[in-house]
Design a protein that fits this description.
Layout lengths: L5 H6 L11 H12 L7 H15 L4 E6 L10 H22 L3 E6 L12 E6 L2 E6 L13 H4 L4 H22 L14 H4 L2 H22 L5 H5 L3 E6 L3 H6 L1 E3 L6 E3 L4 E4 L9 H8 L4 E5 L5 H11 L8 E5 L6 H14 L5 E5 L6 E2 L5 E2 L2 H18 L3 E7 L34 H17 L1
Parallel strand pairs: 1-2, 1-14, 2-5, 5-8, 8-9, 9-10, 10-11, 11-14
Antiparallel strand pairs: 3-4, 6-7, 12-13
Helix pairs in contact: 2-6, 4-6, 4-15, 12-13, 13-14, 14-15
Bound molecules: phosphoenolpyruvate (PEP) and manganese (II) ion.
Length: 449
């Protein structure tokens, strides 16, 4: 099996692509990317596929998390470590409190391209209305609101490759080199978090884990090497056809095409047209793939997508990431799950608890309410429990830093508090404390389900 050419894909009408003004520079960047080594191996992608399949049977739980949009300036050691640390903390809470293995998937090492609701952005600059191309992520243009910065620059596709390579290299070092060792659970808790109520809850749990590990060691029931490393996978929205196509290679073992820029890639809510270029491309690659489904998706849409994206019904191949919003999930999700299940189609259902809950605060900040995020997850568990189907995981947008982007949580962040440390260039993220709180609350729901 092979994949269509870039030209064929573009001819299908690809949504959300940049308007580059220099085709020769685009071609040069793509040619260069085609020569770059893979960032992941096909065998690793298959391993993740098997784990997602286990989650779809209820034998594991998927935790997918990270930034809405990574940026090049933030691809630093501190940032990557903080992000990884909070995801490891969330995972250990879910594993310990609910007694299931957690499949850890980062929105990182490639999450640089963003779909936007409008192509242009207008701002008042020095008393004048100025209109420039919208920011589409560091993969396309700069966030700064100037004509030079907002011009789509194909050279950035190579910058994405290099930033992703260095991020993934660090993640691999952290997760296999001892930092992610289960005996380090205490050290993942920072001073700041330790002093919060949820941080103390975490400390107590970490002490129990220590005792359990010591016990297992004492009775000779555990191989310390088992605790030494964790499996951690990369994922991003495969939006830019130039980049994703250039990073698609034939696996030497199977002669099948894999996207080797990430273990898992997903189709966004704005590019999931059944006859569009993205769905066509995704139907050809052999990675585990995700597809977002929002409130406008019908049960027939879900079934058609599942049939096109996973025609052989391979377990773990397709994850439907639903993002209805807390107010809509209980009414909207059942029809989709029922239809897909009734047709015997194998998918993993993951709850994106973020993207249906975004709104603009009175002071202009794009935000979400912590309680809405939790309520969407609660609705997700309720729907699956009622239908006898499996809630396979959650997707969150979060960061390892103490930002102030989401209202509520134990620290009761208010609208006024958003201005204190709002750093996201696109969507608001859970901060460290909110992430940890969410993990404990979701662990309760998971245990009960
Ligand atoms: C995202 O995951 O950041 C995103 C843009 O989501 P969606 O496609 O569901 O809007
Ligand atoms: Mn987002």
């Amino acid at each position: 099996m092979s994949i269509p050419s870039l030209e064929q894909l573009h001819a299908m009408g690809a949504a959300q692509q940049p308007n580059y003004d220099d085709p020769a520079a685009v071609a040069a960047a793509v040619a260069r990317l085609r020569t770059m080594p893979p960032l992941v191996f096909a065998g690793e992608c298959d391993e993740l596929k098997a784990k997602i399949a286990a989650a779809s049977r209820g034998e594991a739980f998927i935790l997918q998390g990270g930034d809405c949009a990574e940026t090049f300036v933030d691809a630093t050691a501190d940032n990557v470590r903080n992000k990884l640390r909070v995801l490891l903390q969330m995972a250990v809470v879910l594993t310990y409190a609910a007694s299931v293995p957690v499949v850890k998937v980062g929105r990182l090492a490639g999450q640089y391209a963003k779909p936007r609701s409008s192509d242009m952005e207008t701002r008042a600059v020095g008393g004048e209305q100025v209109t420039l191309p919208a920011y589409r992520g560091d993969a396309v243009n700069g966030f700064e609101f100037t004509p030079e910065s907002r011009r789509p620059d194909p050279q950035r596709l190579l910058d994405v490759y290099h930033a992703s390579a260095s991020t993934l290299n660090l993640v691999r070092a952290f997760t296999t080199g001892g930092y992610a060792d289960l005996r380090q659970v205490h050290t993942w808790n920072s001073e700041f978090v330790r002093n919060s109520p949820v941080g103390q809850h975490y400390e107590a749990m970490a002490a129990e884990i220590d005792r359990a590990l010591t016990f297992m060691k004492a009775i000779g029931a555990a191989d310390p090497d088992e605790f030494h490393r964790v499996d951690f996978y990369s994922s991003h929205e495969a939006l830019l056809l130039e980049y994703e196509h250039a990073m698609t290679r034939t696996d030497s073992r199977t002669e099948l095409p894999y996207n080797v820029s990430a273990h898992m890639v997903w189709i966004g809510e704005r590019t999931r047209q059944l006859d569009g270029a993205h769905v066509e491309y995704f139907s050809r690659i052999r990675n585990p793939i995700g597809c977002k489904l929002g409130p406008t998706a019908t049960a027939d849409d879900a079934l058609s997508l599942a049939t096109k994206l996973n025609p052989t019904n391979e377990p773990g191949r397709l994850t439907f990431i639903t993002r209805f919003g807390a107010g809509k999930i209980r009414d909207g999700l059942p029809a989709l799950v029922e239809k897909v299940t009734a047709e015997g189609v194998d998918v993993a259902w993951v709850c994106d608890a973020m993207h249906g809950n975004t709104f603009e605060a009175s002071n202009g900040y794009k935000t979400r309410r912590f309680e809405d995020v939790l309520d969407e997850v609660r609705g997700f568990f309720e729907v699956h429990r009622a239908l006898g189907t499996v809630p396979a995981g959650i997707l969150v947008e979060n960061t390892g830093d103490d930002v102030t982007e989401i209202i509520g949580g134990g620290e009761e962040l208010t609208e006024q508090g958003l201005a204190h440390r709002y750093e996201s260039v696109v969507d608001p993220r859970l901060n460290r404390v909110q992430s940890l709180e969410m993990a404990f609350r979701v662990a309760d729901m998971l245990r009960k389900s």
